[in-house]
Specification:
Elements (H helix, E strand, L loop, with lengths): L4 E4 L5 H13 L3 E6 L2 H13 L5 E4 L5 H14 L3 E6 L12 H21 L4 E10 L12 H7 L6 H16 L15 H21 L5 E5 L17 H4 L1 H8 L9 E2 L5 E2 L12 H11 L1
Parallel strand pairs: 1-2, 1-4, 2-3, 4-5, 5-6, 6-7
Antiparallel strand pairs: 7-8
Helix pairs in contact: 4-6, 4-7, 6-7
């Protein structure tokens, strides 16, 4: 019987670290804490060791093909496969950044990285495995206001090429200085992050079709506004509270839950409902900040 393996990307702090902590307590197998920075990753492992939890560590930069290949080779040699993969690594970017390089970096880490993982890591996820893409309320289709892209992305037979064209459209508009804030909800705030997370949620649907043949489930979820470094400590939930639903989804949810977009409370939402009120609102953050003052 092969050893079961769970991997959490970007897990040296925040929600990722709390997911690792929860899996170490409940998962019957090896749990990998991974991070881009080796020293920070090892420090996180040492802190968990002090709590009596013993994840394994490996360096992993999800935006770097060579790093992902090294991690794949390590897993194949040591355990031959993965049972649970939680794609948590991400960055938010500036509030209203129209800087092309910054927007491209946000897209690379939050979306393009999943394409690298799909190519290199998904093949070693074992049959009947579970994959979870950590998205955001920025990842619901209601964040998009451009009619052409709403129609394209809401197609039930959406293809990965459509998603790539959507991302390219946004980046080109930033590069050409033709970006229209009205194309994105909430006046175009955190536009690059919204585009990346919408693309990630859409990609989850496409990926599920391919993974069905191996009975692997893949879902995306919004973890809530969580007090982490990414949100500069602003949020309604602690990282440990926010980790509960991701852990439920990979350990306890029915195997029939596939290709879904899930809210932080575990409720499955209709990702295609572009008229819904699920999009991220900057006023939520500002109101929360005012109450803290």
């Amino acid at each position: 019987m092969p050893t079961k393996v769970a991997v959490v990307t970007g897990s040296n702090k925040g929600i990722g670290l709390s997911i690792v902590k929860g899996l170490c307590k409940r998962f019957d197998g090896v749990v990998y804490l991974t991070s881009r920075d080796v020293s920070r990753g090892k420090a996180a492992v040492e802190n968990l060791n002090a709590e009596g939890l013993f994840p394994e560590f490996h360096q992993l930069d999800v935006s770097d093909r060579k790093s992902v290949e090294r991690f794949r080779d390590h897993i194949k040699e040591k355990y031959d496969g993965i049972d649970i993969l939680i794609n948590n690594a991400g960055v938010s970017g500036g509030l209203n950044s129209a800087n092309y390089d910054e927007c491209k970096s946000v897209i690379n880490i939050n979306f393009n990285s999943i394409l690298i993982l799909e190519e290199i890591i998904f093949p070693i996820v074992r049959d009947n495995g579970r994959i979870l893409n950590i998205s955001s309320d920025c990842g619901h289709l209601s964040n998009i206001r451009n009619k052409y892209w709403i129609e394209k992305l809401s197609s039930k037979d959406i293809k990965m090429d459509d998603i790539l064209q959507f991302v390219d459209w946004f980046l080109q508009s930033i590069k050409d200085n033709t970006f229209n804030k009205e194309d994105i909800a909430d006046g175009g705030t955190v536009a690059a992050y919204r585009v990346a997370k919408v693309a990630l949620s859409a990609a989850t649907i496409v990926q599920q079709r391919e993974l069905d043949k191996r009975n692997i489930s893949i879902n995306s979820m919004h973890p809530g506004l969580v007090r982490t470094d990414m949100t500069t400590g602003i949020g309604f939930y602690s990282a440990d509270e926010a980790a509960k639903t991701p852990i439920y989804l990979v350990l306890d949810a029915p195997a029939s839950l596939k290709g879904a977009y899930i809210w932080h409370d575990g409720k499955v939402l209709d990702w295609y409902d572009y008229n819904a009120d699920y999009y991220f609102k900057i006023s939520t953050v500002l109101d929360h900040l005012q109450k803290k003052v």
